Amino acid sequence: MTTSVVIPVYNGKKYLEDNLPFVNNLGVDEIILVDDASTDESAEFITKNYPQAKLIKHSTNLRFPISVNDGFKKATGDIVFLLNQDLKPSVNLVKNTLRHFKDSDVFAVTFNENGRSWADGKWVGGMLEFTNGKLDNKLHDSLWPSGGSSAIRRDLWNKLGGFDPIFTPGYFEDLDLGLRAHKAGYKIIWDPRCKVDHLTEGTFPKSFGVKKLQYIKERNYLIAVWKNIDSKLWLSHILSLIKRIILHPGYLVPTLWALWKKLVS
Fold first, then answer.
1. Are 44 and 53 a contacting pair, CB within 8 Å?
2. Which run of H or E residues covers position 73?
């Protein structure tokens, strides 16, 4: 199996200086970096120090889901390792990951990120509730592959359509993809041996105020639910949504925003 790495980049020069040497030593067939109109000379750093890498440059800031999609379009590997710019992979990451893709039904392998476990979830009252599963040294099925630390079979990514741009600027695009993959009958695996270190919380908190960021998360959660909910659960979902708005009137804002996004998409 051939391998690619895709890294979306935004003002990440200081992270790339630390992490790209580790990525470069993974021994993958190609490294693709998507610079999303950075203003800190990230692109210049990549060109100067990693000329063998494929660099995609956005002239305007298109945000995470679109940057990742653009990276996958350029990728040629059978398996694509999707890594955040502030993530340091372990030396045996590729070896520990590829063994799972011998099973043609495996869509993705999601990584053991800072000791964070697999994603577990279930539908309760028409809402999707999720949490981190029990952290142990066993393999687990995961509800979704992490958008910043996972390996994905490229042909199935293309079949499912990748990340939906409706989730721009980001959050829950990976949940949506995971739900679609499960619906199509594919597997997502969490392996404790596939270790990565995630150094920061990313650039989103720096780009948006606290309240707007919370609204984006709540809006995108609802969009992911609406895209994937079983028709039998719609009534209980609407009742739960009404109850949530009554108890927390501010929830009306992301609800209306999500409705508008769905109508114009």
1. no
2. helix 64-74
Q: Does residue 120 sit in the same domain as residue 221? A: no
Tell me: do 45 and 146 sit in the same domain.
yes
Across the 265 residues of the chain, what is the mean pLDDT of every consecutive 10-residue run? Answer: 98 96 97 98 97 98 98 98 97 98 98 89 97 92 97 98 98 98 98 90 70 97 98 98 97 98 92
Within 8 A by CB and 6+ apart from 259, the residues are none
CA atoms in the 13 A half-sphere facing the CB of 118: 24
Cβ contacts of 104 within 8 Å, gap of 6 or more: none
Quote the CA–CA distance of 157 and 184 in Å, as a whole number.
Answer: 12
Same domain, 116 and 171: yes
Residue-range definition of the domain harbouring residue 183: 3-203
Assign residue 191 the CATH number of its domain: 3.90.550.10
The total of structural domains in the chain comes to 2
Rounded Cα gap, residues 72 and 32, in angstroms: 9
Q: Where is the domain boundary, 180, 203, 226?
A: 203
- What are the Cα distances from residue 187, in Å, to 84, 96, 242? 22, 17, 34
